[in-house]
Design a protein that fits this description.
The protein has nine helices and 23 strands. By secondary structure, the protein is an alpha/beta fold. An eight-stranded mixed sheet has the order 7-22-23-21-20-17-18-19, sandwiched between helices. Strands 10-9-8-11-12-13-14 form a seven-stranded mixed sheet, with helices on one face. It has a six-stranded mixed sheet with strand order 1-5-6-4-3-2, with no helix packed on it. Helix content is about 20%, strand content about 35%. The termini are far apart. The longest helix has 20 residues. The chain is globular, with a radius of gyration of 23 Å. Strand 8 and strand 9 form a beta hairpin.
């Protein structure tokens, strides 16, 4: 069929209509007419792929990456960066209105990133290929097949260098073919890395031998974690963490801890999420390693940092010790928000939320509604679950501000900061 693309929707696809049927296709631009072959047909919608662009958008650009459309990591490299930001703003507001009933008429401050070279974390798959030489790369779009790559322009220079060095080890057959996955995380200066590797088995090698091989090939390794899947055993060679600088604060981040992936915007996100907040008690739920807890302690007498991942709370506790004496007290709780909230009875002056992509549970939303907190800051990486959560929260809170952080240029992903103010009728 021929399809006129009307708009982009969350998930990286464009949408058009044919005979009343909504049709979704990737790698298109609004205003384009495309020839589409359907891959899946449901009662009310269909999905397909473009076979030919009949009328090209004047804004379409040549993708920088030769693997674009094959690799599943990027969705928007055919669009100019300023257009990506505009489309993401529209998608955010449309999603909040359609799924959450939040029809925000105020300004949306958009925080742009350098469009390439921004990622401080990457995860690569490794698969055996013909000839016995394993290949490294990403999964193909919508597939479990490997898209082998020798470059990735969204990576920081240190991670691009790491990718090249691991690829060299594979090509020279210097590392066991049982290697299945590599994850690298670079520090704020883009100098040192955490490297985590997974092997089907060590192939008769010791962890120390494999570690020596990897360290010789990749001198930037600060700490190395090796996983032997055949025994489900981890071997740690190194301290288990690196120090990541955000402004004048340094955070310990371990192999198994979450940290924001955009090396250019992490500081702005921390600053804006905590700006203007002050008082006696702040709750930092889903606190991670303390990205928001530490700046909150500068303006609150007490901060309770709640994190359910024990690996992250070990880093968090170390970061709290390092920041001791620079502000209010920070209490670390190694538990889920669902466990913590029913036991807290003091009214906080601020609640900061940074949940995973699944958003808030029903139990957390219920407790937040009766928390009495006058100020809630919600950091979200998924506008659909954000909209669902706001639909409930807006019974007792009203949206006071929305900011969009483009932590993931070239992809459909976006980060949102929503400020919520308790309604006077709910006090």
């Amino acid at each position: 069929m021929q399809l006129k693309i009307e708009k982009l929707v969350y998930g990286g696809e464009g949408m058009g209509h044919s005979d009343g049927l909504a049709v979704f296709v990737p790698f298109v631009a609004p205003g384009e007419t495309v020839a589409v072959r359907l891959d899946a047909h449901k009662k009310k919608f269909a999905r397909g792929h473009v076979e030919k662009i009949v009328e090209t958008s004047p804004g379409r650009v040549v993708p920088r990456c030769p693997y674009f459309t094959r690799c599943g990591g990027c969705h928007y490299q055919h669009l100019p960066y300023d257009a990506q930001l505009s489309y993401k703003r529209e998608i955010l507001l449309e999603t909040l209105a359609r799924l959450g009933g939040v029809r925000w008429q105020g300004p949306v401050e958009v925080h742009a990133s350098p469009p390439f070279g921004y990622r401080n974390r990457a995860q690569w798959k490794v698969r055996p290929a013909v000839g016995g030489i394993s290949q490294i790369g990403y999964l193909e779009a919508g597939s479990e097949a490997l898209c082998a790559v020798d470059q990735c322009p969204i990576l920081s220079p240190r991670l691009e260098d790491t990718l090249a060095r691991v690829r060299g080890l594979l090509e020279r057959l210097e590392i066991p073919a049982a290697l299945t996955e590599v994850e690298a995380f670079a520090d704020g200066e883009d100098e040192r890395i955490l490297l985590s590797t997974s092997f089907a088995n060590f192939g008769g090698n010791t962890a120390q031998a494999l570690g020596g091989l990897l360290r010789q090939a990749i001198p930037a390794i600060e700490s190395l974690l090796l996983h032997d899947a055949s025994r489900d055993r981890f071997e740690l060679l190194g301290p288990g963490y690196l120090r990541y600088s955000v402004g004048d604060r340094r955070y310990r981040v371990g192999h198994l801890s979450f940290f924001q992936v955009n090396r250019f915007l992490v500081g702005a996100l921390a600053e804006r999420a905590t700006a203007g907040a002050a008082g006696r008690l702040a709750l930092d739920l889903y606190a991670g390693v303390g990205l928001f807890s530490l700046p909150l302690a500068a303006t609150f007498s007490r901060v309770v940092a709640v994190e359910g991942n024990p690996a992250a709370t070990r880093d968090l506790e170390d970061n709290v010790r390092s920041a001791a004496g620079q502000g209010g007290a920070i209490d670390v709780r190694t538990e889920d928000a669902e466990e913590f909230l029913p036991r807290t009875h003091k009214r906080p002056d601020l609640i900061l939320l940074d949940p995973p992509r699944a958003g808030l549970s029903d139990a957390v939303r219920t407790r937040l509604a009766v928390s009495g907190a006058p100020d809630i800051r919600y950091v979200s990486c998924d506008p659909a679950t954000l909209a669902r959560d706001l639909k409930d929260l807006c019974a007792t809170y009203e949206v006071a501000g929305i900011e969009l952080f483009d932590l993931f240029p070239q992809s459909f992903h976006l980060e949102t900061l929503v400020r919520l103010r308790r309604r006077e009728s709910a006090t």
